[in-house]
Amino acid sequence: MDRVIIFDTTLRDGEQAPGFSMNALEKLEMARQLARMNVDVIEAGFPISSDEDFEATREVAKQVGSADASPIICGLSRVALMDIDRCWEAVKYAKRPRIHTFVATSDIHLKYKLRKSRAEVLKAAVEAVKHARAYCEDVEFSPEDASRSDFDYMCDVLEAVIDAGAGTINIPDTVGYAMPREWGERIARIRERVKNSAKAVLSVHCHNDLGQAVANSLVAIQNGAGQVECTVNGIGERAGNASLEEIVMALKTRRDFFGVDTRVNTQEIFRSSRLLSHITGVHVQPNKAVVGDNAFAHEAGIHQDGVLKEKLTYEIMRPEDVGRATNKLVMGKHSGRAALASRLKDLADKKKEIFDEDLISIMKDEIAHVPETYVLDYLHIISGTGVIPSATVRLKKQEQVFQDSGVGDGPVDAVLNAIDAITGLKGRLQDYQLRAVTSGKDALGEVSVKVDFDGTVVPGKGSSTDVIEASARAYLNALNRLVHPAAGRKVQEIGP
Ligand SMILES: [Zn+2]
Predict the structure, then answer these.
(1) CA 258 distance to own-chain centroid
(2) Strand 5-8 vs strand 456-464: parallel, antiparallel, or unpaired?
(3) CA of 485 to the centre of ligand 1 (A)
(4) Which residues in 352-468 belong to E strands, given as ranges?
(5) Of 495, 491, 489, 492, which is closest to residue 100 (Cα–Cα)?
(6) How far is CA 281 from the centre of its chain?
(7) How distant, in Å, are the alpha carbons of 204, 240, 373, 495 from that of 174?
(8) How far apart are CA 211 and CA 234, in angstroms?
(9) Residues with CB under 5 A from ligand 1 (ion)
(10) What average pLDDT score do residues 349-378 get?
(11) Residues 6+ apart with CB under 8 A from 121
């Protein structure tokens, strides 16, 4: 049976999307889980975009890509030779490194972004692929904005880069413009029109602006694509990328229809989805296919009755197949076991039952661990009907202890104002999400925030059985990220 290569770009395209940024440690945790899930390729970053992304890509190559059976570790670069050099410096530690280079081929991009002629872009693409091949056997090329590129010109570029040594040709629908039938036809036509296309793996990279990313990826597979680029939970630029879990489960559930297979261990899908949510603080919608909270919940009585009698009546996939039944905890060597143990003890004192989700939530706090410049030491709130909410907060900064108080519109506001009074930094809450991790009145509350500190927006998260304390922890997590030097990053260009 034919096997489709699953190229995961959660750590590159996904991570570039606003609100999804991850630090090197978080990328490493996620990369380990992607390897456990058995994806074929991990695109770990865009090394020239920032020093932090360079280091993250390098660490993924070193620590996740070093074994014989490790996934291919890929880095993105533009066609500039310096970009490729930098990319190689980061991915070269992997057993199987890949350089992915791209340049736009649509007239819109040529005219307004690159200010280059078609001939110049073709030449640059060929030179880039040759330069990358001098370092690395495995080179991928993408003509950015392929869906809006002149077809014949794009095919000329593809033929030239295959001759130059590109082993994978990735066709991105960068702006999510394509519709399934025309996209499928386009992929089939590339196979026919590009004379040497049999020498390369044809790949697609679909965006979800019109909700067609998964459909376009699947139809491309039916028309000769041997690789699909996708992300966990479908995260990515704007409306996101094609969702890995949906593609993989569509191919598995409808093997009769597609007749192709992947290497993905589907039982790791749910855990990957939840780990990503925990790291980024962004949760999937309940009705999200495969990984949403309701994806396997049967509410209607008649459905419940049917499912109890025979699961196949309403279930086309089994929750176990995506790892939902077993919620085994993911723990890495950087997970901070001592911290985990102490938080767990605290929790056990407050809560009757501890669920897997509780552990994962605490774990997430530890994974998200940034050096704690400020540590929450004490918190006292006065709040109620007809009372002006006020808070007293004590923070530790190394050996020093600071205490201050604040008032606010509500207890959370009062606590954050008290923290601001201590640190002298004024944060504006841009986003605040509270979520109960488990059910029950003593459930662990998980707070995700985005705080604007004078133009720098920093994410933070925290959990506690007390939602006010969880809010304070989330805010302090953001604050600690801000004062930690690696907080800022620059992205020069978006990529395919
Ligand atoms: Zn993209």
Answers:
(1) 27
(2) unpaired
(3) 28
(4) 375-382, 390-397, 400-407, 427-436, 445-453, 456-464
(5) 495
(6) 11
(7) 10, 10, 40, 8
(8) 11
(9) 13, 496
(10) 73
(11) 103, 104, 105, 110, 114, 157
Binning the chain into helix, strand and coil, the percentages to the nearest 5 are 45, 20, 35
Give Dmax (Cα) for the chain: 78
Distance CA 78, CA 495 (A): 8
SS3 232: helix
- Which residues are CB-contacts of 167 (< 8 A; sequence separation ≥ 6)? 137, 138, 139, 140, 199, 200, 201
Q: How far is Cα 80 from Cα 103, in angstroms, rounded to an integer?
A: 9
Reported as a single tens digit per residue, the pLDDT across 111-168 is 888 899 999 999 999 999 999 999 999 999 999 988 889 999 999 999 999 999 999 9
Distance 221 CA to ligand 1 centre (A): 18
Task: Kindly state the DSSP code that residue 67 receives in the 8-state scheme.
Answer: S
Residue 429 Cα to ligand 1 middle (Å): 29
Measured between its terminal Cα atoms, the distance across the chain in Å is 30
How far away, in angstroms, is 309 Cα from ligand 1 center?
44
Which structure tokens are listed for 25? 């440690």
Task: Kindly state the tokens that stand for 411.
Answer: 């207890």
Question: What's the one-letter identity of residue 303?
Answer: H
pLDDT of residue 337: 63
Residue-wise pLDDT tens digits, 39-69: 999 999 999 999 999 999 999 999 999 999 9
Token pair for 174: 């960068």
DSSP state of 331: -
